[in-house]
Write a structure and sequence with these properties.
Helix 2 crosses helix 8 and helix 3 runs parallel beside helix 5. Strand 11, helix 7 and strand 12 form a beta-alpha-beta unit. The chain is an alpha/beta fold. The radius of gyration is 19 Å and the shape is globular.
Length: 252
C-alpha cells in the first residue's frame, strides 16, 4: 500500500494504491483538514494517520500548496510531476495538453511521451481559478454542479477581476437577467481567461484535471474553442494525489 496526498489551497485529496487499484478519500476542506488531521511540528508536521485509518508504516508522498505541512512521514514531490504521473495512471495517455484548474491558479502542461515538455501558469489572478467559480456560484445561489450546466445565452461579464466580477454579477442580477444566463456568462468568462494559457500549445487531446473539470459547460466550451478531444480523468480532482502514489511507489 502507498498513499498520495494533494494538499491544495481549497481542498485536500488522498489516494491509496494497492495491487487491486486506487481508493480515494475526500475532498476535505483544507483549513478543517489541517486542524483535525495534522499534528503541528517545527519540522513541518505529521499526518495523524490513525484518525484516517491509514497504515502507519506505508510509504506516502505529498504535493500541493501545503505539502510542507507534512514535513515528517511523507516524501515531498513537485506538483507538476505529480499531475503528469496521475494523468498517465488514470487515462493511459502519454501525449496531450493538460489543463489543471485549481483553487487559486491554473496551469497548462504539454506532455510528450509521458514527460512534461513545456508548461505555462497563471498564478497572479483568481479569475481563472476555481475560487472565481465558487464566488460566482455563491452569488447566484447555485451549487457548482448546477452552475456548470449552463452555457447558452450567456450574459457577458466585462470585469477581469474575481472580486469586481462578483460585484458586476450582482448588478446584472438586479437588472433582471435570468440566473441561468448569468451562470452561462460566468462559464464563458472563465473559458476566455483560460484560452490565452492554452494558446501557445498545439495538441489534439486536451485533458482537464482539478475539481473544475466537473463543470460540463467548461468542457463543452473548450471543445468548441479549441476543436480538440477533451478527456476528463476519473476522478479529475484526485489526479495529483494519484500521481503521488505512483511516485511514492517508485521510491520503494
Amino acid at each position: 500500500m502507498v498513499y498520495g496526498v494533494d494538499l491544495g489551497s481549497r481542498c485536500v485529496k488522498i489516494a491509496a494504491e494497492d495491487r487491486v487499484g486506487f481508493e480515494f478519500m475526500g475532498p476535505f476542506d483544507t483549513a478543517g483538514f489541517y486542524r483535525r488531521y495534522i499534528e503541528p511540528d517545527t519540522e513541518g508536521g505529521k499526518l495523524r494517520r490513525d484518525e484516517l485509518d491509514l497504515e502507519s508504516e506505508a510509504r506516502m508522498a505529498a504535493t500541493g500548496y501545503g505539502r510542507a505541512r507534512l514535513g515528517r512521514g511523507a516524501v515531498m514531490v513537485p506538483e507538476l510531476e505529480a499531475i503528469i504521473e496521475g494523468v498517465k495512471a488514470l487515462t493511459g495517455l502519454s501525449d496531450a495538453l493538460i489543463l489543471d484548474v485549481g483553487g487559486q491558479d491554473s496551469k497548462a502542461l504539454l506532455m510528450r511521451k509521458g514527460r512534461m515538455e513545456d508548461f505555462a501558469a497563471n498564478d497572479r489572478c483568481a479569475a481563472s481559478s476555481g475560487r472565481f467559480l465558487e464566488n460566482m456560484s455563491t452569488a447566484l445561489g447555485m451549487n457548482l454542479e448546477e452552475m456548470g450546466r449552463y452555457w447558452e445565452n450567456p450574459v457577458e461579464l466585462s470585469s477581469t477581476c474575481a472580486i469586481f466580477g462578483e460585484t458586476e454579477l450582482v448588478g446584472l442580477m438586479g437588472e433582471g437577467h435570468k440566473l441561468q444566463d448569468l451562470a452561462a456568462g460566468v462559464n464563458h468568462a472563465i473559458v476566455r481567461r483560460l484560452l490565452p494559457l492554452l494558446s501557445r500549445f498545439q495538441a489534439d487531446i486536451l485533458i482537464l484535471t482539478g475539481g473544475v473539470a466537473h463543470n460540463q459547460a467548461l468542457r463543452r466550451l473548450l471543445v468548441e474553442a479549441r476543436s480538440v478531444q477533451v478527456v476528463v480523468p476519473d476522478p479529475p480532482d484526485f489526479v495529483a494525489a494519484v500521481g503521488c502514489c505512483r511516485l511514492a511507489r517508485g521510491l520503494e
